[in-house]
């Protein structure tokens, strides 16, 4: 099986590590149709995985000031891939975002058939637009949320919230990448299509993660909590806080561990990674 990954970033490289030698990463601009076509012809992949996109650095506020770049990457690019892969008859996968909701849907979590209800950031709007358009076609869409990894880094939720001076603490779905990657490959093996919520079962608050961090990684760690209203005073864009239903994915046999179990395990590994640095 030959995989071609578009997007030489955090998630693209995680997929490369998980798949191994069968995968290659392309840095081609996915909004350039001719370049994408040439890359597909050169590699002749069985599966294409799109991990390219703008999330903003250091955060999604960047997208508010770079709307053309964001929409080109997050909306136009996936449509180019759709056209190119369809013409070449290649099965392809799009890594989207679960940050298109707010709330927990009355305790049920938002399912894949629930329409997006969070439009407070340009980033989230672009992810909702691309998702809605791609839904009309046989594409596997993986909704990733707040990725958690065992290696410290700027895209890792653990690293992010342990470096913030204050945090907002409300229930959220998160994706422990170890589980996300494994479940994603299960779905790809089944040639699944459609939208799947790729988060660990259950919601967890930031304070819970930080309490575990203090217990497992650093007993001297302290943090402060502030409200969503206070957060709104210091950010340009709103933030999605939501819990997703994982019933569809679990029913498809692509299992992920309960969020607290997975989080404790990843924090133990995170501590080991910090010691090795």
List the helices and strands and how they pair.
Layout: E1 3-6, H1 10-19, E2 23-26, H2 33-43, E3 47-50, H3 61-65, H4 67-88, E4 91-97, H5 122-134, E5 140-144, E6 147-148, H6 157-163, E7 166-167, E8 175-176, H7 177-189, E9 194-197, H8 206-216, E10 224-225, H9 228-232, H10 247-251, H11 259-276
Parallel strand pairs: 1-2, 1-3, 3-4, 4-5, 5-9, 6-8, 7-10
Helix pairs in contact: 2-4, 4-5, 8-11
Written description of the protein model:
The protein is an alpha/beta fold. It has a single domain, classed as Rossmann fold. It has helices at 10-19, 33-43, 61-65, 67-88, 122-134, 157-163, 177-189, 206-216, 228-232, 247-251, 259-276; strands at 3-6, 23-26, 47-50, 91-97, 140-144, 147-148, 166-167, 175-176, 194-197, 224-225. Helix 1 (10-19) links the parallel strand 1 and strand 2 (23-26). It is globular and about 55 Å long. The model has no long low-confidence stretch (mean pLDDT 95).
Fill in the keyword field for this structure.
277 residues; alpha/beta; Rossmann fold; 6-stranded parallel beta sheet; two-stranded parallel ribbon; globular
